[in-house]
Design goal:
The complex is a heterodimer.
Chain A lengths: L2 H14 L7 H12 L6 H9 L3 H10 L11 E6 L2 H4 L3 H12 L11 E6 L11 E3 L2 E3 L4 H10 L3
Helix pairs in contact in A: 1-2, 1-3, 3-4
Chain B lengths: L1 E3 L4 H5 L2 H14 L5 E3 L13 E5 L2 E5 L7 H6 L7 E4 L4 H4 L17 H6 L4 H9 L1 H11 L11 H10 L6 E6 L8 H8 L1 H15 L3 E6 L4 H16 L15 E6 L9 H8 L23 E5 H13 L1 H5 L2 E2 L2 E2 L1 E8 L5 E6 L4 H8 L9 E6 L6 E2 L10 H6 L8 E6 L4 H15 L5 H18 L5 H15 L3 H5 L1 H10 L1 H11 L1
Parallel strand pairs in B: 1-2, 6-7, 6-9, 7-8, 12-16
Antiparallel strand pairs in B: 1-3, 3-4, 4-5, 10-11, 12-13, 14-15, 14-16
The chains are: A alpha+beta, B alpha/beta.
Bound molecules: flavin mononucleotide and FE2/S2 (inorganic) cluster (FES).
Flavin mononucleotide binds next to strand 9 and helix 20 of chain B.
Chain lengths: 154, 508
């Protein structure tokens, strides 16, 4: 997306949240949902709209695991690393995903799949769990995971 | 013909949407008119997707249901290969005492009429009739304690906020539910969102707050969508707004989505996050009850604490208090997770022993292998070996056994589990999630990982170091993230020393 479009869209998002108490997180979520990440270009615009320093916005973006500084691949695969999933083979599932994609956590495969860890998806009674492009999947094994990736063309 | 197919996130993650589509298509082929209700989950997750068909005798259950099972549902339901009989007669459900979860899985979650027909709004109406003071008294009498982990009496917290000076006060619902093994908040919001809205409206009335926020984690997209929708419906129906249920009390609320930080479940970090700041922990005092959101008096309560309040008001505090054991009154929605055969949600009065919970109710491990240990209360909770399975489920009972009940998530592992690896994970998790404000947590957790690696490499001298480090974290951390991480670490070391020794042998 061209810089001017990022600037314009970010300013529009800020206007949509004008006057809202504690608007920073909702704004950042909206920015990321549009661009897939929070572009550096967006920070000064958000800071100005809220009347805070750019460094403060930067600090908030950096604090939360959800916000990405760079665009992810075409697909985002999140695999749960937490205890209940570990109890049902979650670590082996993650290892299989890393091997298949040829990346470690936070890496993006040649096929455009970004692998991210997540600590619990609330599917702990149907472990192990994962989320592919926002769609939840439970009680999966490496075979099912490979199918899921194939289904989205990754 | 009325058919229920859960839209609960776990049911959907196990294929419920495809099941609903297949049932609708099969019905159309046969020219049968069906009404498909997307309900919450009954909590028997090993049977999901659990389809129910309404009959004159009651709801008949079928599960775990696959799209291919749809055709025969219309042929001969009684001999359907997935038939489970009447839902209410399934032992796992029949043995429960459902108070907080009474409507979850039963009603259409976003149908306010269905909610009211099933007892909804009785509590709020009663509160409006009683007045704020008597409402707080009722909650206090119920013995209800915070379900988010710390177990603080809800009525006393409300009284503090009610008495605090100030025109602007807030109700904040903690729906951050970051604990592994926990999913009750999610199930409640997806299955009965109006009970949370009603509970928050009662809280606002009781303490004099006109505004509420639900801080809901981003990992729960379905719950966010359901609650957003329910709030809109509640406004339209006059349950929220300038005149709640026609009274002169005004209350409105909105959802704020988290951003993937575990520590934001800690109440002061959560308040910073809603304010649009980094989610660092605030020093206490001041208590959030006196200076919370934007420094205004604020009730911060867990989803389950708030969603239980309508029932307390509807049935009376004494009735709720009649359940339970010791100082743990009422019921607790237990969440059976990980390597357990009958995984899901089981609501029961406090007091069951851990052995009853994981063996009788949970049916032992899912793999069928011997059960090795159980972690109660999330990533900051202790591991319990079978030798401690006679511990009764209650706040004080768990503290006495060297643990905590937390949010009542229970993670089971079998004999293949490596407890040294779980101890290392606990430290790693603390290091990743530390808000960075205090040194014992921020640096201690990193040192903890290193020290556990030394132990794994066979360095016996590292074990006392680990104990020292845990003591420093326990005593010096600002909040329970650093303060309680020693629970899973030391319980693993104390109850399963052979796992730490085994890694030593492997290294030699
Ligand atoms: C690191 C940490 C994480 C927490 N996470 C949660 C959580 O996800 N949900 C919750 O309700 N309480 C959580 N708590 C407890 C809250 O600080 C607070 O005690 C609770 O929200 C109060 O509500 P209650 O009295 O209804 O339990 C957490 C505490 C700590 C220290
Ligand atoms: S621990 Fe993986 S979904 Fe909860």
């Amino acid at each position: 997306m061209p810089d001017a479009a990022v600037v314009a869209r970010t300013a529009e998002i800020c206007r949509e949240h004008a006057g809202r108490e504690g608007a920073l997180l909702p704004i950042l979520h909206a920015v990321q949902s549009d661009f897939g990440h929070v572009p550096a270009l967006a920070l000064p615009i958000v800071a100005k709209a809220l009347g805070v320093a750019v460094a403060e916005v930067q600090g908030v973006v950096g604090f939360y695991h959800d916000f990405r500084a760079a665009p992810p691949g075409r697909h985002v695969l999140k695999i749960c690393r937490a205890e209940a999933c570990q109890a049902m083979g979650g670590t082996a599932l993650a290892d299989a995903a890393k091997a298949q994609l040829g990346v470690d956590w936070h890496g993006t495969s040649e096929g455009g799949v970004t692998l991210e860890p997540v600590f619990c998806l609330g599917l702990c009674a149907a472990a192990p769990a994962a989320m592919l492009n926002g769609v939840l999947a439970a009680r999966i094994d490496p075979t099912r995971l490979a199918e899921m990736l194939a289904e989205v063309g990754a | 013909m009325k058919i229920f197919v859960p839209a609960d996130a776990a049911a959907r993650a196990l294929g419920a949407d495809a099941v609903a589509t297949a049932i609708a298509a099969a019905a159309e082929r046969r020219d049968v008119t069906v009404q498909i209700v997307r309900n919450g989950s009954r909590g028997m997750v090993w049977l999901e997707p659990l389809v129910e068909v309404e009959t004159p005798e009651g709801r008949q259950a079928f599960g775990p249901f696959a799209p291919g099972d749809a055709e025969s549902l219309f042929d001969a339901p009684s001999v359907h290969p997935k038939a489970l009989g009447l839902t209410e007669e399934i032992p796992f459900l029949k043995r429960q005492t459902r108070v907080t979860f009474a409507r979850v899985g039963v009603i259409d979650p976003v149908d306010l009429v269905d909610y009211e027909v099933n007892g909804g709004l009785t509590g709020l109406r009663h509160a409006l009739h009683l007045g704020p003071d008597a409402t707080i008294a009722e909650v206090t009498e119920s013995g209800l304690r915070g379900r988010g982990g710390a177990g603080f009496p809800t009525g006393i917290k409300w009284r503090t906020v009610a008495n605090a000076p100030g025109a602007q006060k807030y109700i904040v619902c903690n729906a951050d539910e970051g604990d592994s093994g926990s999913f009750a908040d999610r199930m409640l919001i997806e299955g009965d969102p109006f009970s949370l809205i009603e509970g928050m409206a009662i809280a606002g009335f009781a303490v004099g707050a006109d505004r509420g926020y639900v801080y809901l984690r981003s990992e729960y997209p379905d719950a966010i969508a359901v609650l957003d929708r329910a709030i809109i419906l509640a406004r339209v129906a006059g349950l929220l707004g300038q005149s709640v249920l026609g009274s002169d009390y005004a209350f409105d609320m909105e959802v704020r989505v988290g951003a993937g930080a575990y520590v934001c479940g800690e109440e002061t970090s959560l308040l910073n996050s809603i304010e649009g700041k980094r989610g660092t922990v605030r020093a206490k005092p001041p208590l959030p009850a006196l200076q919370g959101l934007w420094a205004k008096p604020t009730v911060v309560n867990n989803v389950l604490s708030l969603a239980t309040v309508p029932m307390v008001l509807a049935q009376g505090g004494a009735q709720y208090c009649s359940f339970g054991t010791g100082r743990s009154r009422g019921t607790i929605p237990l969440q059976l997770a990980g390597n357990v055969r009958f995984a899901g949600l089981f609501e029961a009065p406090f007091g069951l022993t851990l052995g009853e919970i994981v063996n009788d109710i949970g049916g032992g491990t899912a793999t069928g292998r011997p059960l090795k240990a159980v972690q109660v209360g999330g990533p900051l909770g202790a591991w319990f070996p079978p030798a401690l399975f006679d511990t009764a489920f209650g706040y004080e009972e768990y503290a006495a056994a060297g643990g905590l009940i937390g949010h009542a998530g229970i993670v089971v592992v079998d004999d293949t589990a490596d407890m040294a690896a779980f101890a290392r994970f606990a430290m790693e998790f603390c290091a990743i999630e530390s808000c960075g404000k205090c040194t014992p947590c921020r640096i201690g957790a990193v040192r903890g990982v290193e020290t556990l690696d030394r132990i794994a490499a066979g360095d016996a001298a590292a074990t006392p170091l680990l104990r020292d480090l845990c003591e420093t974290m326990r005593l010096g951390s600002l909040c329970a993230l650093g303060g309680f991480t020693p629970f899973p670490v030391l319980s693993a070391l104390n109850h399963f020393p052979q796992d730490f020794a085994r890694s030593k042998e492997a290294a030699e």
